[in-house]
Amino acid sequence: MALECMNQDFAGDNVVSLREAAKLLPGNPHVSTLHRWRSIGCRGVKLRAIKIGGRYFLSLDALQEFVAATSANATQAPRLSQSRSTQKASDEISRRVDKTVFRSHAKRGTKNPVPANELDA
């Protein structure tokens, strides 16, 4: 499988290292940016590269496809996501606020309000 990929995409003179590819791009992004695009991706698209002898290489066609795909995705709204720790912290804050609101209403003798997470249902 890797050899097929190498024969199709990485054969010929259009193969460059990530460091060389970074120099070709406008704005001179750091090579670590290209490594991030390769491993994590950008706007849902990963930069196709192959590892040979501990170094990553890519074809200029793969770089061009990545730029075109990420530019096309740039017109779409960014996807908002939260890490697990951020989500847990947000949930904990919601629980604390609900507890505080319930306690303050209990002290005053008023009816407890509906928790915020039940309003969404």
Measured distance between first and last alpha carbons: 48 Å
User: What share of the residues lie within helices?
Assistant: 55-70%
Name the average pLDDT.
Answer: 75
Q: Which quaternary structure do these chains form?
A: single chain
Tell me what you see in this structure.
With 121 residues, this protein is mostly helical. It folds into two domains: 2-73, no CATH class; 84-119. It has six helices and three strands. A three-stranded antiparallel sheet has the order 1-3-2. Strand 2 and strand 3 form a beta hairpin. Helix 2 (18-24) crosses helix 3 (31-39). The protein is elongated and about 80 Å long. Mean pLDDT is 75; it is low at 1-7.
What layout of secondary structure does this protein have?
Elements: H1 2-9, E1 15-17, H2 18-24, H3 31-39, E2 50-52, E3 55-59, H4 60-73, H5 84-108, H6 116-119
Helix pairs in contact: 2-3
